[in-house]
């Protein structure tokens, strides 16, 4: 039985895509969520301090890395954006952290995600490493749902 008294480990996770299904990646950098404060003060305020008002919320990018395989589904998704069909490329994505037994744990869901950058692997005939490709995905909303 998994130890649920401790935190989840960061090495077992799944990525779910609407049009691709479940994809495997070796690394996943979840985006941040930031709401910048706007400082404001009226000239007749009694307190000599500024108020902090909320502004627009911004989300960072989701970055995925994996060993290069024969699968080109994600490259085709990026190609759709390169051809100008950003609206058609938008889809929902989820990252699911798994416990030690492979059961689903915390889940983050992302809205209107589309790939903004694809980085092909660096190749070196004298190296002894896995060829890694990187996909950077723009998101317009993020929520931890469990």
UniProtKB/TrEMBL annotation:
Q: Which residues form a coiled coil?
A: none
Please name the NCBIfam families in this protein's record: conserved hypothetical phage tail region protein (TIGR02241)
Family annotation (PANTHER family): CONSERVED HYPOTHETICAL PHAGE TAIL PROTEIN
Supply the name of the protein.
Phage tail protein
Its ancestry begins with: Archaea, Methanobacteriati, Methanobacteriota, Stenosarchaea group, Halobacteria
């Amino acid at each position: 039985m998994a130890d649920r008294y401790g935190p989840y480990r960061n090495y077992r996770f799944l990525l779910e895509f609407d049009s691709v299904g479940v994809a495997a990646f070796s690394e996943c950098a979840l985006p941040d969520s930031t709401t910048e404060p706007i400082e404001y003060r009226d000239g007749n305020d009694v307190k000599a301090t500024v108020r902090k008002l909320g502004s627009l919320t911004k989300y960072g990018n989701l970055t995925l890395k994996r060993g290069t395989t024969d699968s080109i589904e994600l490259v085709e998704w990026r190609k759709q954006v390169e051809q100008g069909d950003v609206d058609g490329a938008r889809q929902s994505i989820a990252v699911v952290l798994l416990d030690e037994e492979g059961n689903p744990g915390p889940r983050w869901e992302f809205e209107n995600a589309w790939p903004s950058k694809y980085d092909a692997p660096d190749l070196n005939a004298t190296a002894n490493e896995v060829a890694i490709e990187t996909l950077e995905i723009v998101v317009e909303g993020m929520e931890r749902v469990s």
